[in-house]
Specification:
CATH superfamily of the largest domain: Cytochrome c-like domain
CATH class of the largest domain: Mainly Alpha
Number of domains: 2
CATH architecture of the largest domain: Orthogonal Bundle
Length: about 375
């Protein structure tokens, strides 16, 4: 038995596809081979443990406890076009690391060129979130991970085809056995677990803002500090929904964001029967790495941070289409911010950029397929107007 295990390990190492036995940075390996998140925010308290408050506030509970092997397997799957119907699109096609795990498009594009109805949300810090997708329809990382794979306008695959492709592959069965001990047959639960494990490892909590929050005030410029003060003020009230340290309160908000020209009104979380009060409502997104994730809003309506900020100062309900009687969030009002204050907020939001724990993009995939074309494009521009 020991000889067989050593031979298996030697073969996988020679082939270059042995899964990591170490946790990603910021995670601690426990005695039972689980990765638990450790951050400086652990030293702080939080009202009702919800991660809502000022600069020194504890984070909400994080989804961790996955093994290093499950996280690493999820990394391979995340970048592998084998998961799509035509083997050309990966999860990373719409969630590109260099773009803050978005795709730089107003509306994402599917495997067969279908144009979606919403922009791709960032995946940074999703391990803290209780609801996923713009309309908050998924209640777990596992549920979220599988929906795009089978959606006709996204990766357009089927569970049967995906499992057949994985099982027939020269390497994936052995990798799944490393990540899920005792497994003989790959199943969709394991695929969802591995993808969730990887996504939970995407931690961004080491920005210049975080250095400031932990006591190093020189980390921010005077302009950024002014922007932070406006952001947190009772006039702008940005921080009441985009609350530190996650910069989201994880709630659904109806704010009356306009759709792009020619695009039908999106009911968002209010599309389901019995949720009329949430019509036009969307989950409050995190602002971490926001400078990398332009364009902004659920439909990519605004090209820059200044444009997105200006929307909030143009008057309550100014962009609600005729015939729609939306129950706008009470925080949406008329702060009447000046151009200088808008510029200061945008500068502050740039201080939330942190990709220091960016995971490595695989140099080679177990499927033998090439990385998607989207991952071989030039570095994107930020959403800050220069």
């Amino acid at each position: 038995m020991i000889v067989t295990a050593l031979l298996f390990s030697a073969l996988t190492l020679a082939d270059g596809f042995s899964l990591s036995t170490h946790c990603p940075p910021s995670f601690e390996l426990t005695a039972d081979n689980r990765c638990t998140l450790v951050t400086r925010y652990d030293a702080y308290d939080s009202l009702q443990n919800k991660g809502v408050g000022g600069t020194r506030t504890a984070l909400p509970a994080h989804r961790d406890g996955f093994s290093p092997q499950q996280i690493d397997l999820g990394r391979y799957l995340f970048f592998d076009p084998l998961l799509s119907a035509n083997h050309k699109q990966a999860c990373a096609s719409c969630h590109q690391p260099a773009r803050g795990f978005t795709d730089g498009k107003a509306l994402s594009t599917g495997t067969y060129g279908d144009i979606g109805t919403r922009s791709a949300p960032s995946l940074w810090n999703v391990g803290f979130l209780k609801k996923l997708f713009w309309d908050a329809r998924a209640g777990s990382l596992e549920q979220q991970a599988l929906i795009p794979i089978v959606a006709p306008h996204e990766m357009a695959n089927s569970p049967a085809q995906l499992l057949a492709d994985l099982q027939a592959n020269a390497y994936y069965p052995a990798l799944f056995r490393q990540a899920f001990a005792g497994t003989d047959q790959i199943d969709m639960t394991q695929v969802a677990t591995a993808l969730s494990a990887f996504q939970s490892s995407l931690i961004s909590l080491n920005s210049r803002y975080d250095h400031y929050a932990h006591g190093y005030h020189q980390a921010l410029t005077k302009q950024e500090i002014k922007g932070m003060n406006v952001f947190r003020s009772f006039v702008a009230r940005c921080a009441e929904c985009h609350t530190p340290p996650l910069f989201t309160n994880q709630q659904i908000a109806v704010i009356g964001t306009p759709e792009p020209d020619g695009m039908a009104f999106d009911a968002g979380a209010g599309a389901e029967p019995g949720h009329q009060k949430l019509r036009g409502g969307f989950k409050v997104p995190t602002l971490r790495n926001i400078a990398l994730t332009a364009p902004y809003m659920h439909s990519g309506r605004f090209a820059s941070l200044e444009e997105a900020t200006e929307f909030y100062t143009k008057g309550r309900g100014h962009a609600v289409p005729a015939g729609e009687n939306l129950l706008l969030h009470w925080h949406i009002w008329e702060p009447k911010l000046t151009a200088e204050e808008i510029s200061q907020i945008a500068a502050f939001l740039g201080s939330l950029t942190d990709q220091s724990l960016l995971p490595a993009t695989p140099a080679r995939l177990p499927s033998g397929l090439a990385l998607p074309d989207e991952l071989q494009q030039p570095e994107p521009k930020t959403g800050v107007t220069e």
